[in-house]
Amino acid sequence: MAEQAGAGSESLLNQADSMWKILDDLADSDPEAYKRFIDKTLKEGSTFFKSPEPCFCISTILLPSVITHELFVNICSWEQMVAPKSENDPIPVMAGELQEKTEGQTTYSVIDIIVNPLVTKGVANSKDRKNLLVHVALDYIENSKKIQVSRKYKNSKKTYKGDPTNLRKYLRHGRNKE
Known about the structure:
Strand content: 15-25%
Helix content: 40-55%
Shape: elongated
């Protein structure tokens, strides 16, 4: 077993060594192509490792509710989410975990909803687009989390309820996180 692990490591080292030799040869033979390759790779890497970005937050309530239980929905955009193919196609959506939080005597829930930036583009300038996106998010929450939420909502003054640095967790799990 240890021999197989060693052979696998050796194979990886050989592949890495080959890759470096190819890059060295490219840098020597065509410095401009090498620069384009490095620039493209760095650009793709910075997009790939960029966390979702908060766009806006709404608050609504969980149903049925004897005691009002507020739900904050953080709408975020992320390049890693697939964009809809056209205006008429369904919007690909990802939801984070439904988290219950307490501040003082108040208990509330928070959830992140993540879509492609093309979906959030123009939402700030159009009440109709924003309302459509909110209802898509609420539908998704109800279907994926098996809960009911009120369709009446308020826009939060903050763009994100909670700590936006927590959005980095999606980098570990990718788009498949539910």
